């Protein structure tokens, strides 16, 4: 069973909307590949809008200002990009019986419903926070203004023709919204800096033993092949025996302390070495693998070949008490505490503003398919 943490939707939405270029073909520096070419071609042609949504309908009114469906499409698109990305990951889980969208976020509420709520919250937040930022004298720098323009062009260039038609947003429209987001983020950051959390108290809420991490080196040889559609096909008894004999021949040298990488030749095609980290009951590589690993102390090598779900293993316990997963979970808990404190503060802020959601429009929208395009989803999965 793959463990899945509940999605922190509100914090996710804020971070997501604050980054307009999410999943638009970025390299490791956060800059879009071939961006010059894409930006040059990003100016939208004059064409008639073709969408089943009335982009001129009011979705929500905030302090007398109407936010139209056209602007809301920006927030919907960002949320759907994230949701569809998670959905593509869910599809790879062997034990996934439903999509990310329909998986329960909390009792009585799906991820789809939770993310829709926070899409609206994000829209409301940036409208209010932009105005508060202006009132307190915050302004965008010239670099930030230029970033808003270039990011808007990149986002527009990443949209399929179908998405452009559905959303009806131009580069100019996206730029305006992105400037609102950037300015609103300045006020958001001000609030977050003022939130104080007792980190020591939060740390005590995380069970260190439950997140005790085990770091393991392994040598592996497969006992399955894969067909053209990547479905596993078991090897014959003869092939499995040959695989077992091949990896077992390395066991004495491994026990004597030879580095696992050194035991495998450069031209070896079957055997492979690697490292994994897990916490108890993850069962990433199967129960037999985990049970054998948990019997080892730091530095020990299992005295026999372990048969996993899809191959044979030689395993070595590198560290039987790593704090990495624990520290990661503590960081998550601290961030969650800060986000919860922010949400409470934001709820108080909203009470000072007139907010009216047009339920006849908003309630009829199903998040997940509004800006969906199969072509875009395939690009996301690739």
From TrEMBL:
<dbReference type="GO" id="GO:0003755">
    <property type="term" value="F:peptidyl-prolyl cis-trans isomerase activity"/>
</dbReference>
<dbReference type="InterPro" id="IPR000297">
    <property type="entry name" value="PPIase_PpiC"/>
</dbReference>
<dbReference type="Pfam" id="PF13616">
    <property type="entry name" value="Rotamase_3"/>
</dbReference>
<dbReference type="InterPro" id="IPR046357">
    <property type="entry name" value="PPIase_dom_sf"/>
</dbReference>
<keyword id="KW-0697">Rotamase</keyword>
<dbReference type="InterPro" id="IPR027304">
    <property type="entry name" value="Trigger_fact/SurA_dom_sf"/>
</dbReference>
<protein>
    <recommendedName>
        <fullName>PpiC domain-containing protein</fullName>
    </recommendedName>
</protein>
<keyword id="KW-0732">Signal</keyword>
<feature type="signal peptide">
    <location>
        <begin position="1"/>
        <end position="22"/>
    </location>
</feature>
<keyword id="KW-0413">Isomerase</keyword>
<feature type="region of interest" description="Disordered">
    <location>
        <begin position="29"/>
        <end position="51"/>
    </location>
</feature>
<feature type="domain" description="PpiC">
    <location>
        <begin position="211"/>
        <end position="319"/>
    </location>
</feature>
């Amino acid at each position: 069973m793959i463990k899945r943490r509940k999605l922190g939707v509100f914090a996710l939405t804020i971070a997501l909307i604050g980054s307009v270029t999410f999943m638009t073909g970025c390299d490791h520096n956060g800059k879009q590949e071939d961006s010059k070419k894409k930006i040059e071609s990003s100016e939208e042609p004059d064409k008639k809008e073709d969408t089943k949504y009335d982009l001129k309908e009011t979705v929500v009114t905030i302090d007398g200002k109407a936010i139209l469906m056209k602007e809301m499409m920006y927030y919907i698109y960002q949320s759907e990009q994230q949701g569809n990305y998670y959905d593509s990951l869910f599809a790879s889980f062997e034990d996934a019986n439903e999509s990310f969208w329909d998986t329960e976020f909390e009792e009585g509420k799906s991820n789809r419903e939770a993310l829709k709520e926070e899409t609206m919250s994000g829209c409301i937040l940036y409208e209010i926070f932009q105005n508060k930022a202006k009132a307190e004298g915050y302004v965008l720098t010239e670099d930030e203004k230029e970033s808003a323009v270039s990011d808007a062009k990149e986002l527009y260039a990443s949209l399929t023709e179908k998405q452009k038609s559905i959303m009806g947003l131009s580069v100019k429209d996206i730029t305006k919204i992105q400037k609102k987001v950037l300015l609103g983020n300045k006020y958001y950051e001000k609030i977050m800096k003022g939130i104080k959390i007792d980190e020591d108290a939060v740390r005590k809420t995380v069970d260190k033993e439950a997140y005790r991490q085990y770091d393991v080196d392994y040598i592996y040889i497969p006992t399955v092949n894969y067909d053209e559609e990547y479905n596993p096909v078991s090897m014959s008894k003869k092939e499995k025996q040959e695989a077992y004999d091949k990896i077992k021949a390395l066991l004495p040298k491994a026990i004597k302390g030879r580095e696992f990488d050194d035991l495998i030749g450069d031209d070896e095609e079957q055997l492979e070495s690697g490292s994994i980290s897990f916490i108890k009951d993850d069962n990433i590589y199967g129960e037999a693998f985990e049970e054998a690993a948990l019997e080892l102390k730091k530095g020990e090598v299992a005295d026999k070949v372990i048969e996993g779900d899809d191959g044979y293993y030689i395993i070595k316990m590198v560290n039987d008490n790593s704090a990495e997963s624990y520290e990661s979970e503590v960081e998550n808990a601290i961030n969650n505490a800060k986000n919860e404190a922010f949400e409470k503060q934001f709820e108080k802020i909203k009470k000072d503003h007139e907010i009216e959601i047009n339920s006849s429009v908003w309630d009829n929208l199903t998040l997940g398919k509004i800006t969906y395009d199969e072509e875009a989803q395939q690009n996301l999965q690739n």
